[in-house]
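Course assignment 3, question 2. Fill in each field.
Student: A.L.
Task: Predict the tertiary structure for the chain below.
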Amino acid sequence: MTAPVVSSGPGLDERVTLRVVEPRPEPSSRRPDAYPRISVDRAEGPVISHVSLGVTSLASSTRFYDACLSALGYVRLYGTEKVSGYGPPGGDAALDVFQVGSQERLSPVAGFHVAFDAPSRAAVEAFHVAALAAGGTDAGPPGLRPQYHERYFAAFVLDLDGHKIEAVHQGEG
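Answer field:
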């Protein structure tokens, strides 16, 4: 059984075809392992559509992300009183930072971080300088990380709410 699905909305004009590999079980026999497996045919592209981070001060965080992401060639694509979205010029937002309620407490998840692709090692260094100047905290200075691979050049920073972010260049020089 095949069901064509057409995504719609800004930047979502890709056609994706889903095929049910196994029939869906009757409601009385449903167990977690009894659901059908779905096979998806899709063109090459990113695994993750976007990431959203809650922040305690949208205005301060917008200034922070404007500064450090511009060093990597990314721009703020939209901004409202509740959210700022970032991505490549003329592209889709890959990062949304949004204002959480005043009663919500943020606690970044241990081990979680967001890595931004950098066009060069110089851009990684500029990201790090800009992030620290905008109030971020150093979590790993620019440099090679051979434990990942021989060309992995990255810098790590904690944003204003403690979210760990990274700029990485994996190409030559």
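Instructor remarks: Residues 58-70 form the longest helix (13 residues). The domain at 51-169 is CATH 3.10.180.10 (2,3-Dihydroxybiphenyl 1,2-Dioxygenase; domain 1).
Grade: pending
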